[in-house]
Amino acid sequence: MYLDLEKDLNPSQQEAVTAIDGPVLVIAGAGSGKTRTIIYRLAHLVELGADPQSILLLTFTRKAAQEMLTRASRLLGQGLHGVTGGTFHSFANSVLRRHASGLGLRHDFTILDRGDSEEIVKQVKEANRIGHKDRSFPKKGTVLTLISKSRNKEQSLESILGKEASHLLLYLEDLQRISELYQAFKQEHSLLDYDDLLFHLETLLMERPEIRDFLRRKHGHIMVDEFQDTNLVQGRLVRHLAGEEGNVMAVGDDAQSIYSFRGATVRNILEFTRSFPDTRIIKLEQNYRSTQPILDLSNRILSGAKEKYDKELFSSWQEGAKPELLSPLSDLTQAQIVLSRIEELREEHPLEDMAVLFRAGFQSYHLEVLLNKAGIPYQKFGGLKFTEAAHIKDMLGHLRLIQNPTDLPAWQRVMALVPGIGPKTSQRLYNAVVKGETDYLEQLRAKNKELAAVLDLLHYFRQNPDTPYNIMERILEYYQPLLKTTYPDDYPKRQVGLDQLSQIASSYSDLNLFLTDMTLEPPDQVGSEDPLEDRLTLSTVHSAKGLEWSAVIVLDLVEERFPSKHALMDEEAMEEERRLFYVACTRAKSRLGLCVPHSLHNRYQGLSTPTRPSPFVQELSPKLYDAFNESYSGRLQQAGRPKEREEPAERKARQLGPDELGFCKHRIFGRGKVVAFIPPNKYRVNFPSFGLKVVIGDYIELEG
DNA sequence: ACCTGATATCCGATC
DNA sequence: GATATCAGGT
């Protein structure tokens, strides 16, 4: 059996598949068969006799890599054993494990997830009494975000602060100090965060040319997917690995770049041709996914961009329903309306072929409640991850501590579970353990039976290594009772989570590998029920990247939500929001719904605040969609019919007309965007550095 | 001295 | 829902 490229692919795709010598840059529009092209290229390479081991496929998630490999082997009718496929991070991890000693690292280093890194930030901050009792000192999460941004964008903390958080500039020195202490702490205790994986790999490749050359020889064919979302180090890593004349293919779409917040830059696409002078550039512009009406609307979103994209997708399917603009009265009724729309669409499409997309994880809460009530099964991507739940972290903490006794975040978690031990004692114990001072330890052990039991348990497994599953079974014996006391309300749910973790663990024989996978590629939100069940997808737009559904509904297309309020004052950020919206719309094959609620319910003020439609929606010509409004009876009504009444009765704040809403100046907060008027004389204003504030009218000066 | 529970504030997207 | 600090108890 061999591939019929001419029958299965269009000419551009064929070119991309067969250009296997030298560097290739593929600019692949949304839905242009990018994945298909990569799959055929994989298969084609192997068919031509390339050793699968020589292929390196770098993708955005491991899931993506795995899916491509499975589909390619199905196409070929043979397994593709030996292909290295995964994320930059997982690739870096496996190289570093093998060559850790070359960098003065322990080969069993621990990888920190975000929460772990925050814990370390907190610890160095407290130990050095930085920002002590200062309420306005940035929180550990903010501190970590800034440090990581600085590293990812390879800019000084000062310039990051100046651009994104100028109100924190007065803490610059403290933040720099924390950053240094954080780096030193990781180094000292064999801990690596996500950024370290990439930078350490780069160091290794530069300092050890023999290792670099070995990898170059091994991976004669490199493919990089989602190239628009790689950051500077990743770009350099590709260059190091490929060499100047390497057989490297980068696939990306500058119009879909949505990760600049973590340092991704389209510069990598632009500079690809400079790094590899003989690059062939291939464009895929024919869209095989969406109907023409959906593409028309999507193209229109891009045409409003500041930076122009020199492509316009055209569809293979002309016919199709126009996108729908749904305008519920509030975000609460939006959930209701989306639910009924899904039930209608269900007549045409299975649940698994539909998705509801949103900007941030919490935006689906209302809908989730209703879906549960209505008994509609769903899976959610983005938002809280399986491994971020407290009980899972507790369990993994024990395992990590067995593997690396100096893993501080794990230590803190485990010790916090022991009665009578709080943060101070835990810290002191940790210091004693690291320094090998047994006196203090013994003293406490004698007093605290529970402490002795836990330490003995950990010690036992260090002496007698066992499978992750067996270790977990043993730890559960003592953790299970704790679960009930600490989570009296929802421990059954958490019990299920632990069972799932056991299930996953049972397929691993190596503890280190299991732990690494849990941080690097945490399992998708594990549904409790049958995995084959027909389920609706709820997802953040970011997590929906690369995926497609027949019907897609996008929530909360109002200012502050989508675009996010963090982006309102920053032009570049707004452009990224625009591309994000573009990505959301181009996920849809035949049905697209855009929701623009008239008001948002504000839990903490206990009232509904009016909204303004997203500017990206406002600039769309009404010809591009059919509009429906929610009537006061809760039903959708085609727009253009006589309206019943202007304002809902319960609305407490008056909606400002578009002309009245503008910018204002505040003596302390600076310039901000007026979001709403709250009678009698207050305003809700979004200040770029301070966030949303309710201010009294007398204190601000309205512009215009 | 330090643990533990109560209370106010804020909330983006990911490996 | 989480984080950080405060107040009360041992």
Walkthrough of the structure:
- There is one protein chain.
- The protein is of the alpha/beta class and about 700 residues long.
- It is built from 26 helices and 25 strands.
- The longest helix has 19 residues, at about 470-485.
- It is globular.
- About 40% of the residues are buried.
- Residues about 640-660 have low confidence and may be disordered.
- It binds a DNA duplex (15 and 10 nucleotides) through helix 5, helix 10 and helix 19.
Helix count equals 26
Oligomer: single chain
- Strand order in the sheet with the most strands: 13-14-12-15-16-11-19-20
Number of strands: 25
Strand content: 15-25%
How would you characterize the largest beta sheet?
Answer: 8 strands, mixed
Quickly give the structural class.
alpha/beta
What general form does the structure show? Answer: globular
| Spatial extent as radius of gyration | 27 Å
| Helix fraction bin | 40-55%
User: Cα distance, first to last residue?
Assistant: 71 Å
Mean pLDDT reading: 87
Low-confidence stretches: 641-659
Please sum up the structure shown.
This protein has 704 residues and is an alpha/beta fold. 44% of the residues lie in helices and 17% in strands.
Furnish the topology, listing elements before pairings.
Elements (H helix, E strand, L loop, with lengths): L4 H4 L2 H8 L5 E5 L5 H14 L7 E5 L2 H15 L7 E4 H12 L10 E2 L2 H14 L12 H14 L3 H8 L7 H18 L1 E2 L1 H14 L1 H10 L2 E4 L7 H11 L4 E6 L14 H9 L4 E5 L1 E6 H12 L10 E4 L6 E4 L3 H15 L8 E5 L6 H10 L3 E4 L8 H14 L4 H9 L6 H13 L2 H10 L1 H15 L4 H19 L4 H15 L5 H10 L15 E5 L8 E6 L16 H15 L2 E8 L3 E4 L4 E4 L4 H4 L7 E5 L5 E3 L24 E4 L3 E9 L3 E6 L3 E6 L3 E3 L2
Parallel strand pairs: 1-7, 1-8, 2-3, 2-6, 4-5, 6-7, 9-10, 11-16, 11-19, 12-14, 12-15, 13-14, 15-16
Antiparallel strand pairs: 17-18, 19-20, 21-22, 21-25, 22-23, 23-24
Helix pairs in contact: 2-3, 3-4, 5-10, 6-7, 6-9, 7-8, 10-11, 10-12, 14-25, 15-16, 17-18, 17-21, 17-22, 18-19, 20-21, 22-23
The chain binds a DNA duplex (15 and 10 nucleotides) through helix 5, helix 10 and helix 19.
